[in-house]
Design goal:
CATH architecture of the largest domain: Alpha-Beta Barrel
Distance between the termini: 32 Å
Radius of gyration: 18 Å
Bound molecules: ligand HQG
CATH topology of the largest domain: ADP-ribosylation fold
Number of helices: 6
Strand content: 15-25%
Number of domains: 2
Number of strands: 10
Oligomer: single chain
Strand order of the largest sheet: 4-8-9-6
Order of helices and strands: HEHHEEEEHEHEHEEE
Shape: elongated
Helix content: 25-40%
CATH class of the largest domain: Alpha Beta
Length: 184
């Protein structure tokens, strides 16, 4: 398994389904690293060890994971569908943030607003470039401009994850502009 495959496996376990390898996760999203290694090796024959996990965490392109201060636990920084509290700080967002999605979702988004879907939060990007790459995961991409200043002024809450992804709840359609539609 290469680093990308291990990162995907960690995302699956730490964001969505720890039960895949019978992992226990606490209410803050932490799992014991030794248990993760033992169970991954027992149930999936992964051949993981501590050095490999540390390497994946340190070199991960989006810094998706954190290891606890005592070195014993690991968790995903954001992207969860399991209901855990990763102790996010409530913060004031920049005036504008971006959301990358696929053109086929546009009608629904402009009718119902952005919804977290299976995740805990709607994910917003700091730059159009990042939003574009997020959108491409779903098909023909489109970048939405979110008037986060107006949302913040109206009392909507925003959180900044450890790896600098902006998170919020539902985004009503009136705060969304689609002028940056890209046909690429
Ligand atoms: C769409 C990646 C129809 C939404 C990325 C998105 C991100 C609607 C999809 C992170 C809708 C959900 C999250 C509505 C929202 N009608 N479609 N009302 N509201 N949608 O994967 O934001 O590499 O759960 O636009 O970089 O694409 O995994 O969310 O297209 O930060 O670390 O429903 O995942 O990070 O898709 O991606 P997702 P996302 P990682």
């Amino acid at each position: 398994m290469n680093a990308k495959e291990i990162s995907k496996f960690l995302s699956l376990l730490l964001r969505h389904s720890p039960e895949t390898i019978h992992l226990r996760m606490d209410e803050n999203g932490w799992v014991d690293i030794k248990e993760l290694i033992d169970n991954a090796n027992t149930y999936k024959g992964m051949g993981l060890n501590l050095a490999v996990i540390k390497e994946v965490v340190e070199t991960n392109d989006k810094q998706r994971f954190s290891i606890s201060g005592d070195g014993g636990k690991i968790r995903a920084n954001q992207g969860h569908s399991v209901p855990v509290d990763v102790e996010l700080a409530c913060e004031t967002p920049p005036a504008v943030l971006y959301h990358g999605t696929a053109t086929r979702f546009l009608d629904s988004i402009m009718k119902d607003g952005l919804k977290p879907a299976s995740r805990q939060y709607v994910h917003l990007s700091m730059t159009e470039a990042v939003a574009l790459s997020v959108g491409k995961r779903h098909g023909r991409p489109v970048i939405l401009r979110i008037d986060t200043k107006a949302m913040h002024e109206e009392g909507y809450k925003f959180y900044l994850s450890e790896n600098k992804v902006w998170l919020t709840g539902d985004v009503p359609a009136r705060f969304i502009k689609t002028e940056d539609r890209l046909d690429v």
